[in-house]
Specification:
alpha+beta; globular; 86 residues; CRR7; Chlororespiratory reduction protein 7; CRR7-like_sf
């Protein structure tokens, strides 16, 4: 049986256009995604996100199901779960 620790997503590496990579906690990534979602016209969001009723729900859905958000032509925002050693 797999160890449940394998499925924990506590930390993420975030890659953004013209920015150095960042390591964020789940809460920090959630806040970052909410900020980015506010900048995007609602009608430009994927339909699956338009169906959700709050920014928090939209951002959490992205964390749970995706690893990138379309933030405009020639730009990117990607995140990947990582395990940090102490």
């Amino acid at each position: 049986m797999p160890d449940p620790l394998m499925y924990q997503q506590d930390n993420f590496v975030v890659l953004e256009t013209n920015q150095p990579e960042q390591f964020l906690t789940t809460i920090e990534l959630l806040e970052k995604l909410k900020g980015e979602l506010q900048k995007i016209n609602f009608l430009d969001l994927p339909l699956e996100l338009q169906k959700l009723d709050s920014l928090t729900a939209q951002a959490q859905h992205l964390i749970d199901t995706s690893c990138e958000l379309d933030v405009g032509a020639g730009k990117y925002l990607q995140w990947y779960a990582v395990r940090l050693e102490k």
